[in-house]
Amino acid sequence: MRTYSPRQMAIIIAVISSLIAGIALVVFYYSIATSFILPLIFSLMLIFIVIYILVSYLLTSFIFEKINPIYKTIHNLNIPENDLKKGLEEKDIINEVNKEVETWANNKTSEIAQLKELAKYRKEFLGNVSHELKTPIFNIQGYVLTLLDGGLEDSSINRTYLEKTEKSINRMISIVQDLEDISKLESGELKLNYSNFDIIELVKEVFDDQELRAKEKDIQLKFNLNYDKAVPIYADREQVDRVLTNLIVNSINYGIEKGTTVVSFMDMGENILCEVTDNGVGIPEKELPRVFERFYRVDKSRSRNAGGTGLGLAIVKHIIEAHNQTIHVRSSVNKGTSFVFTLKKEIK
Ligand code: ADP
Fold it and tell me: Phi/psi of residue 268, each to 5°?
């Protein structure tokens, strides 16, 4: 239904009142005089003007009084009342406020949904963190109690229990370090230190660092080609090192005995496409969209046994996205997994 501004309403009311008064005046003048046209017109004009001013003033004040608090609330405004009144008088207030309240309500609904999502995420995150920390803490408590209960003097277990305690402490340290990194990455605290460097050289360094781990499962770490020329990229070397280390360590942890991990590169014009492929256990298709979530693990016991915190891929994704690049995963159960990401080519 069409709504009217206070000014239009005042005109309509003034016209109707003048018409009614006109009829009454015609009857009145007709009974007392013969020439009444001029006084009639004059009286009608006067009635119209008085009613118009009165109604217009009353309506504007009434509507303003009702709308002012709503308007100020939805806009969080702190503007002087007179300015607001003037602004409102110039518009079709009711329609305008109607529309603005609708937009405001829609925004609030999505804001509330977002806050609920955040609260849920926070709750889940805290639950996950305490769950992850509980296991090593209880293990340490168990070992220490056994040692105190006489185990310390028992040479067949004292050393093993201390070594197990150290392993649990190291696990806690890894979790806390990864958590610290995630929070830095999420709050944007981590500033990237860009430089040009050869990614082939970096991969070779990571291969060297992980050689022992790979040997334990007789896994071969190699390139798809014999890269005799450098593949220079522009990125934060230390962070790309962490990405490659995480992906290569995963390829070993979730790889098969005597398996292979292959690293390859492809020129994509502005970017270099990097791929880390293994022929390991693979990831079921329905789990693929979730592997980059914090604490998400396909095989929980395998991950924990390998010393995984469940945060590695979340960190990897954050780092790649901080470089404004993307990462994807392809996988087939019992065939293998490929992580593919892009990095910017060297800037000359
Ligand atoms: P984790 O510390 O458990 O390895 P990540 O965040 O690095 O945590 O990986 C999340 C999960 O994704 C792992 O627990 C594992 O189930 C799966 N995953 C990661 N990389 C591979 C891979 N190369 N092959 C098979 N599964 C993988």
Answer: -115, 25
Which domain does 87 fall in, by range? Answer: 6-91
Pick the atom of ligand 1 nearest to 336's CA.
24
- The tokens of 154 are what? 């028992």
- Give 153's DSSP letter: G
Ligand 1 lining (C-beta closer than 6 Å): 246, 250-251, 254, 278, 280-283, 291, 296-299, 303, 308-314, 337
Atom 16 in ligand 1: which residue has the minimum CA distance? 298
The single-letter code of the amino acid at 311 is L
Name the domain boundary from 149, 171, 187.
187
User: Whose C-alpha lies nearest to ligand 1, atom 25?
Assistant: 282
Q: Which among 175, 256, 285, 291 is the best mutation to test ligand 1's pocket, defined by most ligand atoms within 8 Å of the CB?
A: 291
Q: What is the pLDDT of residues 241-300, one digit of tens each?
A: 999 999 999 999 999 999 999 999 999 999 999 999 999 999 999 999 999 999 999 988
Give start and end residues of each alpha helix (H) in the chain.
6-32, 37-75, 81-89, 93-148, 158-187, 199-209, 211-216, 237-253, 300-305, 312-322
Same domain as 83, residue 165: no
pTM of the model: 0.71
The answer to whether the beta carbons of residues 248 and 312 sit under 8 Å apart is no
**Which residues, 6 or more positions from 275, have their beta carbon under 8 angstroms from its beta carbon?**
262, 263, 264, 265, 266, 338, 339, 340
Domain count, the chain: 3
Instruction: Tell me the per-residue pLDDT of 121-161, one tens digit each, with 9 for 90 and over.
Output: 889 889 989 998 999 999 999 999 999 999 999 999 999 99
Task: Fill in the amino acid letter for 173.
Answer: I
For ligand 1, atom 21, which residue shows the shortest CA distance?
250
User: Is there a contact between 88 and 67 (Cβ–Cβ < 8 Å)?
Assistant: yes
Which residues, at least 6 apart from 178, have a Cβ–Cβ distance to it below 8 Å?
A: 309, 311, 312, 315
